[in-house]
Amino acid sequence: xxxxxxxLLLTAGAYILNARQQRKHIxxxxxxxxHYQIEKLMEALTEGYLxxxxxxxxxxxxQIWQLLHTTEAQLCEQFRKFAAEFAKEAQADTCVSRFLLxxxxxxxxxxxxxxxxxxxxxxxxxxxxxxADRGSDISPRDRAFTMSAELFLMQHSCHWFCKSRMVASARxxxxxxxxHEQLIASVSPQTRSxxxxxxxxx
Length: 202
Description:
Blueprint lengths: L2 H31 L4 H17 L3 H29 L8 E3 L8 H4 L4 E3 H17 L6 H23 L2 H12 L3 H7 L2 H11 L3
Antiparallel strand pairs: 1-2
């Protein structure tokens, strides 16, 4: 067997293993998300924020902000339950490679270079709840900015779990024109500290 043939076989094998792992993660995440309306609530919030910020009168804007508080509360509660439910999964099924590109059997070959998605979802649940709980100490505009960053970073983590860090970052750029580093800088200090400690293995 020549080197080229061996390289092709190894590449094909790696692709198959990666596809199998990604499909397993996608199904696992989708199975849990199926019970909730998290994506629908996220969409309602982001669209509502844009509407409130675009209103010409403070009165009308305030009405929209008040309505959004209810949506935020619903999202916080649903995501808290989702994270708690996902936490019951086995660690072997929730490991995520820290590498930029997907590597077959990374959790087995390089366990120190992985993080636990169960812990990540708990971090995001707390971050989203804290953003929603901010009261008069922050303007509605800043509140919306922080909440949006928390939600987008959570989306990035889900894409990372299902695909890879590189794919997750590329999707954030394509959908929200926001680099991963900017998302990290835009969330609350508490989320940022816990998030970085987890992905850096500290």
